[in-house]
Amino acid sequence: MNLAAPLQIGNVSVRNRVVLAPMSGVTDMPFRQLAWRYGAGLVVTEMVASRELVNNTAESWSRLRTAGFKPHMVQLAGREAHWMAEAAKIAAGSGADVIDINMGCPAKKVIGGYSGSALMRDPDHALSLIEATVRAVDVPVTLKMRLGWDEKSLNAPEIAKRAEDAGVKLITIHGRTRMQFYEGKADWDAIRAVRDVISVPLIANGDVDTPEDAQEILRRSGADAVMIGRGCQGRPWHAGVLAGEAAPTASVIPDIVAEHYEMMLDFYGEATAIRHARKHLGWYLERFAPLLPVPEKTAIMTSHTPAEVVSRLRDALTARLEISESREAA
Where's the active site on this chain (predicted)? Predict the structure, then answer.
């Protein structure tokens, strides 16, 4: 399948068929801006808690904000139809072009509140949330979920069919159960059971890392598009690579990383950004400077001085990437 081809979600056109997954603590606005710039077809906000959004919490509004391009896709999570509907209205009124319902998150703090993948344990209740969200807004509503709660309850096909009947315009399936978390290998073949019962577009998710992975998951699942999550950590441009864009050259990567850090400073303010950025810096260093001496890595990860972080980061990445390039040339 040509992943560079457009995809339609209801009345919303998406420029290609590679979607950046919503990841809490990762796909904030700076990360989404970079992913979009480098060619992702669609980027999804971090999960926005519906009740907290209606109650006007600062974190929910921060997550809701558009990254300045279209389409703007917002993912909502919750366990009560009323709050999901009200949050959907707020999201649509604030510029969301597509609203995604989270029924896939396996995190304990999410399922402990009977949200995320916990909803798959009670399909009737889950459908009440879906129906309320669809009725509340005019923009397309989509659904992201797992294969089921565990191996004994692989009910994604049943829920997907009912969701389509309720008006959902696209389904995304992560090829694991909730009880698997992110362990083992995603079951790409099992996603096909969802494809067999729905007519709306299907996105396949789970362990997509290379262009070859993307084509194989499409072949085995019958999906129309792919979603990539952890494979973009430390390389926000990688969704675009799967869609056919050229990867940044080694000489450009230090500039992208430094810009990402500076974007986070602008978005969060210095004190908060320094904390939030550390995981991203760790991923960049793991990918592109894995042999960096521990004292040098520690200095980058613990510094509270942005100028020092950027300088040390550039030096570390430039030196290691130059070595890598010279080895490849030889």
Answer: 105 (proton donor)
Question: Which token pair is 62?
Answer: 């921060």
Residue 5 is predicted with a pLDDT of 98
CA distance 199 to 244: 26
Q: Model-level pTM?
A: 0.94
Pairing of strands 73-77, 48-49: parallel
Q: Are strands 18-20 and 225-228 parallel, antiparallel or unpaired?
A: parallel
Looking at the domain 7-242, which fold is it? TIM Barrel (3.20.20)
Q: Would you give the distance in Å from CA 316 to the centre of its chain?
A: 28
Cα dihedral across residues 101, 106, 109, 115: positive or negative: positive
Give the residue numbers annotated as catalytic, written as ranges: 105
φ, ψ (nearest 5 deg) of residue 225: -160, 170
**Which residue type is seen at 301?**
M
Residue type, 304: H
230 is in an annotated binding site: yes
233 is an annotated ligand-binding site residue: no
Q: How far apart (Å, rounded) are the C-alpha atoms in residues 112 and 101? A: 17
* Closest to 99 measured CA to CA, from 151, 57, 47, 145: 47
Write out the E strands in the chain. Answer: 7-9, 12-14, 18-20, 42-43, 48-49, 73-77, 98-103, 141-146, 170-174, 202-205, 225-228
Condensed to tens digits (0 to 9), the pLDDT of residues 85-119 reads 999 999 999 999 999 999 988 776 676 666 788 89
Two structure tokens written together for 320: 């290691």
pLDDT reported for residue 330: 42
User: pLDDT tens across 135-162, in order?
Assistant: 999 999 999 999 998 889 899 999 999 9
Q: Give φ, ψ of 146 to 5 degrees.
A: -105, -175
Beta-bridge mates of residue 7:
14
Q: Any idea where the domains of the chain sit in the sequence? A: 7-242, 253-329
Average pLDDT over residues 236-240: 98
**Has 185 been labeled as part of a binding site?**
no
32-79: per-residue pLDDT in tens?
A: 999 999 999 999 999 999 999 999 999 999 999 998 889 999 999 999
